[in-house]
Amino acid sequence: MTKGKIGVQMMMLKGKVEELGVYETMRKVKELGYRAVEVSQIPMTEENVSELKRASEDFDIEIAATSAALEPVMASMAGETLVNDFDKIVNDCKTLNCNFIRIGMLPFNVLGDKDKIMGFIQKAEAMAERLAEHGIELYYHNHHIEFQEYDGKYLLDMMKEETSKLGFELDVHWIHRGGVNPVDVINRFEGRISLLHLKDYRIGQIDMAALADGDRSKFMQVFTNVVEFAEVGEGSLDMKAIIDAGLASGSKYFLVEQDDVYGRDPFDCLETSAENLRKLGYADWF
């Protein structure tokens, strides 16, 4: 039977990497049963790349994807970019036996401007063509803003229609937050989505202390921002339908991610997600 591979988006574990180091963090990932990771928000220093390689080999954990901005997300933001550090980023991928690089989000200076966004996407498409010469695929990760409509068409669909080499890492929480059914989007993106983010969606507890001073506007801010990022299986998304649609549409890696763990240890959150995914019938995907 065809199956995918369930992994971890390491953005969740950046604090653990700072505390324990890459190698011991990856050891714990292995102990939780995961055998793939997507590297994000982990500095790709020579030491970290070396430790990722060592841990990958010692613990049989695939490096599913690395992360790189095409150009700086903010003008003042430091960090590697594909435009400025192409050779280094490609070499890191080859060192880690990794065939995917993903762009985490749009640069801030194009937000809210359709023409600037599409200009950025065309640059990403050109970079995807350049990376393809090295056997590497470039992917773009969505949030909710890509479901803004222009002339009745979602921005994300426009991005897909105007590209062919660029892949799309669909994040099902952000799709749902954008007001769209994740399964419908996954089906539309068949053949372009080797990477899928599993992130659940729940309504959290309202902080009624916001009413204490009688400030209605303060309360309404809390009231309208009560959505939380949930462990897989602890929210309202139909994860089985999402995963099955992802597999049918060509997804290879199903990466667990939770942007905020609300005070829990991220390893505990990952354990909860893994247990729930096993209960859903995906034990052999680990």
TrEMBL record:
Gene3D superfamilies attached to this UniProt entry: Divalent-metal-dependent TIM barrel enzymes
Keywords: Isomerase
Molecular functions per Gene Ontology: isomerase activity
Entry protein name: Sugar phosphate isomerase/epimerase
Domain Xylose isomerase-like TIM barrel: 27-265
Pfam family for this entry, one: AP_endonuc_2
